Amino acid sequence: MYSIIFKPNRYNSFAWTNIVALLLLLYFGKVEPYTVIFGYFLETIIIGVFNVIKMYISSKHHKSEKSVAFLIPFFIFHYGFFIAVQSIFVFVIMEFGDVISIKEPFDLITNYGLVFKLKGMEYIIGLLFVTQLAKYVFDYIQPKKYLLFTPEEIMFRPYVRILIQQFAVILAMFFIMFSNADVMAAILLILIRAIVDFFLVGIRDNEALLNRIVDKMYDGKTSKEELKKQLILFSE
Asked: What is the rounded distance in angstroms from the CA atom of residue 13 to the CA atom of residue 201?
């Protein structure tokens, strides 16, 4: 069953596109390994922006004025703070690892300016932005998921995925610091991220896999339908 998750199809085409494009950019020297690693870290910001848009669209269809007045600003503040704390932690690692010229980990604006200057960052950001835009159009707008999920439900959607992704980024950075194998670290990160994407797509689009996970999670308190809905929400 799990082999179906990795088999190329229209559902996981975004994940496969990312893998192939990033590996080709690395192979032809268009990007540095560090660029791939920090690009994935910057993707958290892109994901947050699209989540705000999703919340706004959903609020219009669910006629939730509370979402526009309170939930969206709250998400922007909370998610922004979440990213800022993680950024400081990553910049501290960079300072010790002498990756780029970090002088003060808390100077986020200057440090992000240095990150944006890494070789090939424009390719990485462009690729990741287009991927998120395509997922927004084809996985959210076309299936009309704004009718299925409320703004309150969408608000917490990115956190699980982001925690996994950021953990992989930090792991790759430690791998570089202690082994100097920057290319292998970048490839490892690409593969870890791809596996996560494949399973999230599988949960969303493979009914047999979704049912198997729900059966394992079922505790008799929450209905299986509600568990399915929450799993689909967090896989978006």
From this structure: 10
Written as tens digits, the pLDDT of the chain (236 aa) is 556 677 777 777 888 888 899 999 998 989 988 888 888 888 889 999 999 999 999 888 887 767 677 889 999 999 999 888 888 887 877 766 666 677 788 888 888 888 888 899 999 999 999 989 988 998 889 888 888 888 888 888 887 777 777 777 777 777 766 666 678 878 888 888 888 888 887 777 777 777 787 777 777 777 878 777 777 777 76
- For residues 38 and 121, the answer to whether their CB atoms sit within 8 Å is yes
CA 158 from centroid of its chain's CA atoms: 7
pTM score, whole prediction: 0.83
Q: Are 227 and 217 in contact (CB under 8 A)?
A: yes
Length of the chain: 236
Tell me how far apart the alpha carbons of residues 78 and 72 are, in angstroms, rounded to a whole number.
10
DSSP 186: H
Q: How far is CA 163 from CA 140, 157, 168, 169, 196, in A?
A: 22, 11, 9, 10, 12
Place of tokens 């980024």: 169
> How many Cβ atoms from other residues are within 10 Å of residue 215's Cβ?
10
Q: Which helix (H) or strand (E) holds 132?
A: helix 121-136
